[in-house]
Amino acid sequence: MLKKIPADYFDxxxxxxxxxxxxxxxxxxxxxxxxxxxxxxxEPEPHILLFKRPLNYQPPMSQ
Length: 63
Hints:
By secondary structure, this protein is mainly beta. It has a domain at 14-44: Cyclin-dependent kinase, regulatory subunit (Cyclin-Dependent Kinase Subunit Type 2, 2-Layer Sandwich), CATH 3.30.170.10. The chain has one helix at 22-27; strands at 10-11, 16-17, 37-41, 49-52. Strands 1-2 form a two-stranded antiparallel sheet. β3 (37-41) and β4 form a beta hairpin. It comes from Aspergillus bertholletiae.
């Protein structure tokens, strides 16, 4: 499903997407488990977002 990305998500100095906070990329419809961080935009193909998280990530325990 294609979605129009809001203009304020773009970095005008680079002409690509800015790094998105979790609330922003989830608002675009991206779903994945907890702990992921958007760390880079692949400039040759700006529709590709790169995410990372620690290898042995354990989500915080709910009380």
